[in-house]
């Protein structure tokens, strides 16, 4: 590294991959992906034509509009899980209900493929919880010691209140646990 260099230059793909990884970790990414993937076959199959030689098989039913609506709603719920994760429980429950409704309405839920994907996405969305933020550990010098048995007046109680001392407990819990071997003794 030369003195003029500010640091190692990273490739832009590495930076984008790390950014995507961070974005993906802050939301129910897989739930949204499975929900959207489940909505596509549900919406597609009623309008698809299968060609076998000179024979064309049409999958369209009278509930084609219902299939389209369910598929579009599932894709919308998947996008909602990604970009508005605060409503993930509602979106997950709605995705599960739409997946169940797609069985009688949309060619057995997009030939079971869309049904299973949307059901899995909804379940993942309902069960997803945001991670706890990583707390930085403070140094021992910065921690405020807690003294048991100190008078209440020393703990910044208004002057007009009574002062009272709490009984001193001379028990060091770490030493007691080590002496007991982790067992709790009553007494």
Summarize this, please?
With 187 residues, this protein is mainly alpha-helical. The chain contains 7 helices and 2 strands. The longest helix has 20 residues, at 64-83.
Describe this entry's structure for a reader.
With 187 residues, this protein is mainly alpha-helical. The chain folds into two domains: 12-127; 147-178, no CATH class. Helices cover 51% and strands 4% of the residues. It has helices spanning 12-25, 29-44, 64-83, 88-105, 107-111, 113-127, 173-180, and strands spanning 49-52, 55-58.
Q: Strand sequence of the main sheet, in spatial order?
A: 1-2
Give the SSE string.
HHEEHHHHH
Head-to-tail CA distance between termini: 66 Å
Number of discrete helical segments: 7
Q: Assembly type of the shown chains?
A: single chain
Task: Find the structural class using helix and strand composition.
Answer: mainly alpha
- Overall mean pLDDT stands at 78
Gyration radius (Cα, Å) is 30 Å
Largest sheet: 2 strands, antiparallel
| Total E-strand runs | 2
List the helices and strands and how they pair.
Blueprint: H1 12-25, H2 29-44, E1 49-52, E2 55-58, H3 64-83, H4 88-105, H5 107-111, H6 113-127, H7 173-180
Antiparallel strand pairs: 1-2
Helix pairs in contact: 2-3, 2-4, 2-6, 3-4, 4-6
């Amino acid at each position: 590294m030369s003195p003029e260099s500010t640091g190692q230059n990273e490739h832009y793909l590495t930076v984008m991959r790390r950014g995507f990884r961070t974005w993906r970790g802050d939301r129910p990414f897989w739930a949204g992906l499975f929900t959207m993937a489940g909505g596509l076959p549900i919406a597609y199959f009623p309008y698809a034509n299968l060609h076998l030689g000179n024979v064309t098989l049409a999958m369209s039913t009278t509930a084609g509009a219902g299939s389209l609506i369910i598929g579009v709603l599932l894709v919308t719920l998947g996008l909602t899980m990604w970009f508005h994760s605060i409503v993930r429980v509602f979106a997950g429950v709605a995705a599960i209900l739409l997946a169940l409704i797609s069985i009688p309405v949309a060619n057995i839920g997009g030939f079971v493929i869309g049904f299973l994907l949307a059901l899995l996405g909804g379940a993942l969305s309902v069960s997803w919880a945001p991670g706890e933020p990583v707390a930085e550990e403070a140094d021992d010098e910065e921690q405020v010691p807690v003294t048991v048995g100190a008078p209440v007046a020393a703990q910044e109680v208004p002057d007009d209140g009574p002062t009272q001392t709490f009984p001193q407990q001379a028990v060091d819990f770490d030493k007691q646990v080590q002496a007991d071997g982790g067992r709790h003794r009553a007494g």
